[in-house]
Design brief:
Elements (H helix, E strand, L loop, with lengths): L4 E2 L1 E4 L3 H13 L5 E4 L16 E2 L10 H19 L4 E2 L3 E5 L5 H13 L5 E4 H7 L7 E5 L3 E3 L1 H14 L3 E3 L4 E6 L4 E5 L2 E5 L2 E3 L5 H7 L7 E12 L10 E4 L11 E4 L5 E4 L3 E2 L13 H8 L2 H22 L1 H11 L8 E13 L10 E5 L2 E6 L4 H16 L6
Parallel strand pairs: 1-13, 2-3, 2-14, 3-10, 6-16, 14-22
Antiparallel strand pairs: 4-9, 5-9, 6-8, 7-8, 11-12, 12-13, 15-18, 15-19, 15-20, 16-17, 17-18, 21-22
Helix pairs in contact: 1-5, 1-10, 2-10, 8-9
Amino acid sequence: MESSHADVIIIGAGIVGLATGLKFLEAHPGKRLLIVDKEAGPAVHQTGHNSGVIHSGIYYKPGSYKALNCREGKVLMERFCLEHDVPFEICGKVIVALDNSELPAMERIFERGLQNGVDCEKISGDQLREIEPHAAGIQAIRVPEAGIVNYTAVCEKMAQLISAAGGQIVYQARVLNMQQHLQEVIVHTTQGDFQSSLVVNCAGLHNDVVTAMSGAKPPARIVPFRGEYYELKDSAKHLCKHLIYPVPDPNFPFLGVHFTRMIDGSVECGPNAVLALAREGYTWGDINLKDLFGTLGYAGFWKMIGKHWRAGMGEMHRSLSKKAFTKALARLMPEIRSEHLEKAPAGVRAQALMPDGLMIDDFLFDQHGQVLNVCNAPSPAATSSLSIGKAIVAKLEPRITK
């Protein structure tokens, strides 16, 4: 039977919660760690629907939390996989400029890469086709250090290590509420009540709801966006050898549809980005009226729509039309045809949205009493997870009972 008291309770058994738990036990062996999650196992939502890329950090503003933790996290993730026999591959990636209008944005990405210490180089269209013979593009950035891994497998190994080190993970424990006292937090769940002097909220798609349970006003609202994918049929897998990305639109906070070779040999194509009708809305049929009305009743959502409605309509069109989705992919790979594609599982992104409609693009934390809320953990959270976990433990240090 699980202990009802722990030195630290972590809410959420996605990759950030598990990495935080692992780093806590490494720093404080013998301390009591408890992780609770409402699902039957780890990595069920954002982590389990991740595309599996080990990001290099080339896109991110130099000096930002994302850039710094991606660079460190990448090293830690690769080391973790080597030490624990989790298959991964450093396969490389290209970021492709399709015409002259995209060259200035490509140049800015390249300069960011250099400032962030990323191994990258500019290559010509002919050099691009030596690497990816079927890709379009007049120039590209080659990033040989980008990689791929199965983050669910990473999480399963993290969970094993946590249990072996004496940590406890309680599944099917949905958090119902919290009560903060001077030196203690009581976390009420469907599996009973648990007490701790410190709680970390890594609840992902539900982090704003859990933040409110801690007694804090969430600094941002989570608005769920579904990323829909196709994958290449076996007959077309030869068209993509590694990772092929477009130069992203600097005015839109998504990377655009791209090709990702997965660690299992499949090739994923996408995603687009459309409003999900539930926080766990992986299809158009997944509707949660409370989640949906919460989004539609949020002023920040409508302000965001006012800024990005044109791009949003394009994303919606691609969601409803395989022909339109194929056309977007064909810009990167002209040989792609609709018959090459079959539906693949979708993912849902927890987009933190401010009241003024600003999409939060970096990690966001909120300390309220004895609860540390991770209010935004955007991509590359999986790549960065071990570095972020270490940073979260450092934030807890002054409060950890010696």
